[in-house]
Amino acid sequence: MTAQVLGVGGSRPRSEEGSRSRSNIPGYAWKPVGWFGLLFLIIGVADMALVWYPLRPGNPAWEFGAVDLTFSSLPVVTIGFAGLLASALALGRTRFGVALALIALLVALGCVGGYLLFLSDVPLALRNSPAEVIPGIRKAIFRNSVFAVCFTTAYLAAGIATLRHVRATKREGVNA
Known about the structure:
80% helix, 6 helices
């Protein structure tokens, strides 16, 4: 009796054997993951867009702050992107997976560019800031350095791994 309650043993009633619930369909769980991934991606990208609007290139203080806030928004964007990418691959949506892989490679390139822009403003920020603000600037430098390396690596790896996976899947499909 206890085994049947826990779902370990026993037989199913005949009415359950013939029916197949949506939760038993392979891949069904990946659809909500994709939707939540898209939600997180939209929220994160909207947050980033508000940081960069209105655009003020050439203003070192704005560039320093914009890149800092962009890197701070990347965790939400990345969670959303990872959910969307995993869902696409699990559901066999290879074209969408390739598009996301190319976007991942562009984001990696954007991380490098943003970090270089950030680094170009660091000497000015350290030189022109009051002494009480310097520890915060040093923390921002450290955090953005870690974020730049980690997110660049993650997006680069995700893009390359996805492209390799899609290529291997196509090769297996042709040989099958």
